[in-house]
Write a structure and sequence with these properties.
This protein has about 230 residues and is mainly beta. It has 2 helices and 19 strands. The strands form 5 sheets. The chain has a 5-stranded mixed beta sheet with strand order 7-13-12-9-10, with no helix packed on it. A hairpin with a 2-residue loop joins strand 5 and strand 6. The termini are far apart. The structure holds copper (II) ion (CU). The site of copper (II) ion has 6 residues, from loops. Copper (II) ion binds next to loops.
Length: about 230
Amino acid sequence: MLKVLVTVFLVSSLGMAAGTVTGKIEFKGTAPKMDPLKMNADPFCQKAHEGQKVLSDDIQYNANKTLGQVFVYVKEGVKKEAVPAAPTEPVNFDQVGCLYKPKVVGLRAGQTLRITNSDPTLHNVHAVPKTNSGFNIGMPTKGNIKEQKFAQPELGIRIKCEVHSWMTAYINVVDHPYFAVSDDQGNYTISNLPPGDYTIEAFHHNSKLGSKTQKVSVKDNKIETVNFSY
Ligand SMILES: [Cu+2]
């Protein structure tokens, strides 16, 4: 009896009652064809990829017929009162070889986005949100760091660089910690979800792909598989 009580206490006080949603973003049909990027507007950018053919990174089609760079998050069902505060650690966002790393970012409303320029060339970071406040900052030298925040949840905030027209990234801001970005195997995992019924959305910034939703019931200590198919 005591053991049961202690377990119940630990589970409730430490917030351990939680499940996991994981899955794959499959891509059916013909592999999307990405155009090569022409980086000759800036000799530095071109030299950074010397001897390599750099293709557009708009759609990340993986060798196993899946998609990377898809933002997957809980769209409905999160109980606001049970959501932990946004982490104080920033989310890193870098400019390397005139490309954004990563291309698709997920972060919490109010969390710091730490923007670095790792290139010895001028970039400007121009955020074009619809509901949040935008910004446009110049980052002229290697090692420049700037910090920004987005106050409101908003998906697919476009980031662009006017110096290098091919540079585009997408920032996804949510008001809870239950999100992930699919990787180079097309996998994503959302952990620590309290038991409950949820709608999960896969969001692709390319409007031709767009978003897909699925419902899932999360149980304590269980792993639910939710695959999406484009
Ligand atoms: Cu740039």
